[in-house]
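Question (not urgent): is this output format expected?
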Amino acid sequence: MQLVKGIDKVIAEDLAPFQMPGHKGRIEQDIYKYDLTEIEGTDNLSNPKDIILETLHLISDTFGASHSFISINGATGAVLGAMSTAFNKGDEIIVMRNSHISVYDGIFLLGLVPHYVYSDQDLLEQIKELDGDHIRGVILTSPSFYGEIIEDDVFEYLFNRDLIIIVDEAHGSHLKLIDEELSSMRWADIVVHSFHKTLPSMTQTAVMHLCTNRFTRSFAQKNIKLFQSTSPNYVLMRSVDLAMDIYINQGVELMEKLLAMCADFKEKLEEQTDFFIVYKDGKQDKTRLLIRHKESVDYAYIDRQLRTMGVQTEFQSQLGLLLIPTIMSIQEDFDRLLAALKEVDIVPADQISYKIFRPERALEIRNAFLQPSINKSYREAVGGIVTEYIIPYPPGSPVIVPGEVLSEELAAYMERFEGHILGLEHEGYINILDESLIE
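Got this back:
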């Protein structure tokens, strides 16, 4: 744990602090003393040569990458760094439509041209249909929020085509502890892991891995730096070091226990209640628990009851209750969850299924995003060109992006949607291109 040892060594010097940060480590909370800046002994994330570099080598060796980079701007910063490393302005790429918003932000910032594949159709067949000499690479998401993992035949095709492969594996930092073949690192050029999601690291910590020699370390370092603060947080970086120590020394054992607890919970849940766990046929992360009821029920009401019983889910939606146990979960967590689910009141509810929309594209994302807009109700905006991202949450993927035309069907869906819709200036209203201001 080089970062931990290095930071502790600096703290032990008991320096008179005439450098940033402003709290000087004198707030009466232990965490503040670990919040340092780039001074002798703490290294520099933008140009690591000492304790940070040793930690990066530890990460890359452990995960089997050629080079790894810490992001203290979360997986978002790592995804943007990966895209900036891999692609140039005007490049045409294949993108999963259910990608995280950071992928769309990268498309906007870099001026890329996306071609979409959708989750309700065969992924490989869609890729083959879009593929051609004009395609520079692909950005895939695996596993999904629900633990669904892309099958090897997709990666084999892309690998043989020698296309640039970026995988947002934010929800899969733990996969190698289950099975090496669940991770996309053996296929991809760049993989992003969000350590804080499934490993014992602090929120906002992530890692970008170079998995091939297509891009140099120095070039990737230059690009990920564009999306990092020049004042990286040492508390966050230290937590990555602590997480790696647990991963290396206890990870396999803790994962075996977690998988056993998940399997036991699933068996008891389905024997003793009308709830069940949803797993995809094929490659699936068995630690990701999507809980559904045999009937159409009000999951929001169930979720509120669980909170009063001391159980917090990741989120609820019309698809069910999503829970994310990790290697730091304990048996008591599962016992409390099972006991609570056996006690909740069940209220019937009509289910509105998530729908996959394929809006007509009128402008590229960047062109539409920068245009003057006008705010209108969903109904009034039908037929207009949207200038913002509309993201129903959960699950958190855009149903429409800047430059696409709002259809009557999508407007009606948004009116009925039960949940939060991110990206709206005012609830029930949407920004569309103000054609009266366009020359």
